[in-house]
Amino acid sequence: MLVLLAGIFVVHIATVIMLFVSTISNVWMVGYSSFGTASSGLWLLCNNTCMQLPVNSDDEASLKATQAFMILSIIFSVIALVMFIVQLFTLEKGKRFYITGAIMLVCWMCILIGVSIYTARFTGNIPRSTNTHHGYCFILAWICFCFSFIIGILYLVLRKK
After folding, report:
1. What's the CA gap between 145 and 116, in Å, rounded?
2. Fewest CB atoms within 10 A around its CB: which of 38, 42, 49, 72?
3. DSSP strand E in 41-124: where?
């Protein structure tokens, strides 16, 4: 049981780190332009230099929603990690990690909403670029989606021994 809890803890820390990287970095979409490789993320559009992401007025709300949900997912993931540590030392034996699991499932839902909005509205949208594809940040966000769901369910099922 101790090995399982340690494994979940390590995967949870890895998920938090990957959420930070996927939200902060600007490689959600990658394309090729006359200037070379171009990448765009949630914040910037980068060629040789980076500039603020140009967004038309129709997509601005979608971009803000994606940014907000990704930031919320980081916040909920960190709160769940802190709650796990608190519950690990204060929870009575035989009790389940319900609070930690519920918070982690809220994180899972925020990732789902944020990445789904980005997928629906911004896939393939890099100005003046051709041959666009998803970058590593987009893939990391979906990996975090899977990990947060698995961790959330495991927290709900596990008992403190």
Report:
1. 11
2. 49
3. 44-46, 50-52
Structure tokens at 145: 């989606």
Please name which of 76, 87, 67 lies closest in space to residue 149, comparing C-alpha atoms: 76
**Beta-strand runs (E) in the chain:** 29-33, 36-40, 44-46, 50-52, 130-134
Residue with tokens 């519920």: 102
- pTM for the structure as a whole: 0.89
pLDDT band at 160; cut points 50, 70, 90:
low
Rounded to an integer, what distance in angstroms lies between the CA atom of residue 107 and that of residue 124?
Answer: 26
Contact 28, 135 (CB under 8 A): yes
Classify each residue of 7-31 as buried b or exposed e, where b means 16 or more C-beta atoms within 10 Å of its C-beta: ebeeebeebbebbbebbebbbbbbb
Closest CA to 14 of 66, 81, 62, 72: 81
